[in-house]
Structures
1.
Amino acid sequence: MSSSPLKRPLLLAYAAGSIGSGLFSTVPGLLLLFYLTDTLGVAASLAGLAILLPRIWDIATDPLVGAWSDRTRSRWGRRRPFLLAGALLLPPGFIALFSAPVGDPSLSFAWVLLAFIWATGAFTLFQIPYASMPAEMTADYHERTRVVAHRMAFLPIGILAGGALAPMLIKANSGGPAGYRVMAVTLAIIAAVAMLVAFFGTRDAPQLPAPVETTGLREQIRVALSHRPYRRLLVGFAVQNIGIGAILAAVPYFCHYTLRGGEEAVTVLFVSLVGPAIVAMPLWMAVSRRFGKRVGYIAAVLVFAIFALSLLVGAEGRLALVAAQVGLLGVGFAGLQVFPFAMLPDLIDDDAAVTGQRREGIFTGLWFVGEKGGLTLGAWLVSQVLAATGFVERRAGELVSQPEAALVGVLVATAVVPAACAVLSLPLLFHHVESARNRAT
């Protein structure tokens, strides 16, 4: 492992992979629940189950893939074979996810359930080893922030494609099932190219060999979770992702039923989110160097919470105001992406210094259990809020009138739940969530 600066082409190739991961993280979280309830006619409570069950499978396989990549020996290293497998398997699963048969909601539910299981499994093969790589690419504290910042600078491109381009593609192709299929094919091609760039472009990345001796998976999980700073950071990160998952799943409902703006409003809000998030990356890096990662992280959480809660004033005719609020929320969102991922490799080093084992994969696998579990619970919470407030599902082309309680539920899911989750995570971050080396720097 080197502590010298990494070459820019390597950083850019590695970062390109986050376009694919950003796409897949955003599109199902943003559109799948709405696709189920407002295109396929699946009841909100059942639609939430179609999202929850595949994510449980996904979460269960994250540590397994992480530990598997830790032990892998190949001419491509420990991680890169998984990048290739994920890049090839994810696109067909993603296309199938938005190509469900229309007419029988039960059949539509079963189709989406199985396709989502395929897609989430393929995504795990790529994402866990991919996110493990910074910990072995460099040993330098600030260089790791640089690696993660490059990755997070590309991530909003995937988020933008998922959050802004996807609704535009759906609308441009007449909406409904056909529009979703065209969107899925287009974005699957973009994701595949980005992920393959990461695979081929990191062939010269510094790598560590697989350990000669490894402990069992259960023991590795126990060791990782016994690391108190890692555990605090993981739980705080997971709680924040419940809020992020809620706001992603709620935005289409917020745009359609609160702002009365349809797909155009979804596109405007995602451009408003991603543009400031990209600009804010250098800002948060400067904050990290001046005040440390933990202080910057807490500041980002507060910004996110304040401007998420401000969305309670959203109403028809206020799209410009809401776009400005979302832009400031995007500044906080950028910090919520940069700081935890920049702190994770330092905590992995702490474990290696004590145990002599490099467990990047298992630490990262558990990390994505927290992220995916949080995002899934957030989307599921939205489905339950909608079901509890009497939301009326519909098939494409049908017109329905939502009860007043459901409109209030949309506001609660969009503004209150994300802000509350951010605030709930703060006590964990005020404790020591950084490595000993980080605190001493």
2.
Amino acid sequence: MTTPPLKTPIDVSRVQRRVLGVLSAAQIVSGAGVAVGLALSSLVVSRLSGSTVIAGFAGTATVLGAALLALPTARAAGRGGRRAGLTLAYVCALLGSIVAVVAIGLESWQLLLAGLVLVGGGSAGNLAARYSATDLAPPGHAARHLSLVVWASTLGTVAGPNLVKPAQAVAEPLGLTGAAGPFALAALSFAVTALIVVIGLRPDPFILARRIAAPPTDLAEPAESAESAKPAAARDAGGRTLRTAWEALRRSPQGRRALAGIAVSHTAMVSVMSMTPVHLDHEGASISVIGVVISVHIAGMYVLSPLVGWLADRIGRQNVMLIGMGVLICAAVLAGSAGHHHVTQVGAGLLLLGIGWSCGLVSGSAMLTDAVEIEHRPAVQGMSDLLMNVCGATGTILAGAVVGFAGYGVLGAAVAVLIGVFAVWIIVAARRLTPAAEGPAAT
């Protein structure tokens, strides 16, 4: 399918306001679906399997699903626009939620894990939505527009767990078990999200941005063949999305630094966050106290994202990324060095951990978007989300091993060293390059 030329003027700012509104609404609804569906997933798997070890695979399954669906979502966006990519992700999450409901009815933990892999499409869609906000952003505003969509997910993430009990209460009169209620609600949430995207995301921001960016010579040549008229990302199918992304990143040192920054920030955050409840439990903290600490951490991840986006546009993406690295180092040292029963110090560390992650994600995502041409963005962004989720899953596994053998303090020190090494690398790498070597012009 060719991208037709833009023949009539269009108010891009008005379209972008609509896009941001639609994406924010989708993030709120789908965020609730992700949160309510996963709130009890480990517990349900544990009860069905009778094994706490197998219960741990519940979280791994959703992360794996988000990683596996990142590239198909990007490929669909490259071929048919953001609407197609996001719809694919949320429909997969809808199907996964339905499979989970059936699995609980059949008391099959194996089928439930398979459903949770598809539920990971909700996370894949939410991650892809942040990039959708940048397609029509005016120059110098990509980070703050992206951060608004990231912030919107806070509302759904916070509301989701509070809907678990009502969902369980409603499930029983409908003939479902109480445990299936949250997944039924998640299915409804993802269905509504898909409808919001399909109906509201018109015109499609990526397709419109591609038409605006098309050079005049392309617009004046209607006789070219349909295949040659397609941009590289639109022709990308099968297993070539990764190759397309790598070719674009090979020409962009800035893109590679952004990709690494996102991955390292996410790995550091997930590694410390995933083991904090275990550490606090061993220290004798109550479930309510652990819940408060994690809530403070989540607030740090999302609440300040608009401020982070504004700073990234004002003082530069790389500067905010380095600030985030410094905050992450402080967070790892603060949490890791907390003595027995110093829950307040751990909470402060987790708050900083969330803020540092926000700096890395928002600035890195905007930096990555700036670094490549419009037609290559979906492939590169999909590769970023794939790497981010794979690194997160790997970080969780390694963090468990470190805490098991050496303790929580050693994990904090190891994460601080990892971030410090990366920060030095990014500074040295940036100084070796001239301004002309940066961004999409460096072809």
3.
Amino acid sequence: MNDNEERPVTIITGRVWKKKGGKPEGVHVMLVAPDDDSAVRRALESLAAEGYAEAELDQIGDMDGIPDEEPHISAFQGALEGEVSIVTFDMPI
């Protein structure tokens, strides 16, 4: 990829905890970064800034297109605008 091409939106999936030993939440983090290492670093920094005490990141990849449903559509748009977008959700028991 050369510098003139737009970078794809990266999605990182995993789990987060507001407090150690607390109830986990699922998380999808969307952002644009030059490489996977930078993406993971920015995701962890953003999660910490939002008050998450712990995070386990499972997968990282590039989005193939715009998501179909909210809140992921807004998160995707935020990532295109340079934000680190965080979507959390309840995990099945």
